[in-house]
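User: Show me a protein chain along with its predicted structure.
Assistant: Here is one chain, sequence first, then structure tokens.
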Amino acid sequence: MVKVLLTGGSGFIAAHIVDILLQHGFDTVVTVRSDDKGKKILEAHPDTPKHKLSYVIVKDVAQDGAFDEAVKSNPPFDYVLHTASPFHFNVEDPVKDFLDPAIKGTTGILKAIKAYAPEVKRVVITSSFAAIVNGNQHPKVYSEENWNPVTWEEAMDPSNVYRASKTFAEKAAWDFVKTEKPNFDIATINPPLVFGPVVHYLNSLDAINTSNQRMRNIIQGQMKEKLAPTGVFLWVDVRDVALAHVKAIEVPEAGGQRFFVTAGYFSNKDLVDIVRETHPELESKLPPKDSPNDLPENIYGIDNSKSLQILGLKYHSFKESVSDTIDSLLAVGA
């Protein structure tokens, strides 16, 4: 059987990837930060045989040699999906707290695979639209050709550090393949805001992913008086992002490619209008009906054709994604 290592197994996107890997017949090993998180994943898949799903503990992905033991396996791994990224709340030192862990977490696993898992054929890395976007000067059309031009100096500004960390980590991965010439190739998945159902066994309402927090805030009445600005106007459903990761190991042509995975545009006003339509019982918590729509008329274009043609993605509609997300948030007590 084909065997896959999935890092960051308790993350929002990774939890959906686990389901798709198992559906597609892969033997799956996930890395988690604690025994408790690993057990929760196994408990959520009670009908899955032990040899099909297991976990290993990697406490800190940024430490030197963090993945050395995790990548060793008998039978060996065929593929690695790297979704793990450093997780913390307070950035006091942008380099120590954010940039180093993001870059070292990515290069660390590539080094470990090269040294200890020579049978691995491909590594798929979760990157981000943050590594593509140019907030100061949007191009006419965004595609995989674009790179965020952020500099190391600009990354010292806390408002830039997240986007910079994703950019530098992805660049480090491509540089590693170019200079180290390992046995494997890589592919990267670059989503914008990721909406979609939360996986109940891993999430509390305080620990949901950043994109879904805005939905939680809306249905809890936190924008009742005034709708917050949308910010980034691009979105994708988590189930499509998860499928993109799995397709990227199944489709030979995906090697050596970046994939800009986005379903299109949205605004917070569009989001609220759908909640109003699909969950009328939440009306009293929602912002005013006449809230302005801040989606620009002359917004940049997007080219997601590579994700359609190579990975064969068919994106969820915004209505379906929002409705399913709200259902899942209400189910965990929102």
